[in-house]
């Protein structure tokens, strides 16, 4: 691809991000995550009773952080949420081809996991399946990065010195294309604000130590903007 086509593809990605964020079940629409008590299962009909037409309800499941037992929950999405109405976009750095970095992917044994601290778990960690390690040279330093399996795609959760000033404080996310012959590309121009940057009803993973970069990553999304 040429530089102009790479930039055009990035512009398309930015537009698609905006559409996804403001969708009826986009990050900005999540107004409540309600976890049920032990042994309880979701009753969607009861949860939907009396809600406004703009609100949808879905179910989700996770493992209890202490026991590993399944926990069931409900999520409430409002296509007319205050966050959607006040959303003014996500600032980003200018596209920079120097932040498209080739890397090497090394597969791990089946069942390999890494402990990720999550934003709303009070310091607790949850094990996530990490099918391999990404070896990359970034600004002259070598890194062995852990990207976990997110519904069949590799998702890199990383931090850098821009967090909390130019970019979202808890780090950023980056999807990594499936490895081809052990090669992957880290296009930090497509680094994005995690869901918890748009709604406090998400519980996002935090960057583990090995994913905290020493160099400021001046590419990708910065922070969401709201009119009020």
Number of helices: 3
The number of distinct β-strands equals 13
Overall body shape:
globular
Coarse structural class? mainly beta
Strands of the widest sheet, in order across it, are 11-10-9-8-5-12
Low-confidence stretches: none
**Largest sheet data:** 6 strands, antiparallel
Strand content: 35-45%
In helices, the fraction of residues equals: 10-25%
Distance between the termini: 40 Å
Gyration radius over CA: 19 Å
Order of helices and strands: HEHEEHEEEEEEEEEE
**Average of the residue pLDDT scores:** 94
Tell me about this structure:
The protein is mainly β and 228 residues long. 13% of the residues lie in helices and 38% in strands. It has a six-stranded antiparallel sheet, with no helix packed on it. It has a three-stranded antiparallel sheet with strand order 1-3-2. Strands 4-13 form a two-stranded antiparallel sheet. A hairpin with a 6-residue loop joins strand 2 (55-63) and strand 3. The chain is globular, with a radius of gyration of 19 Å. The mean pLDDT is 94.
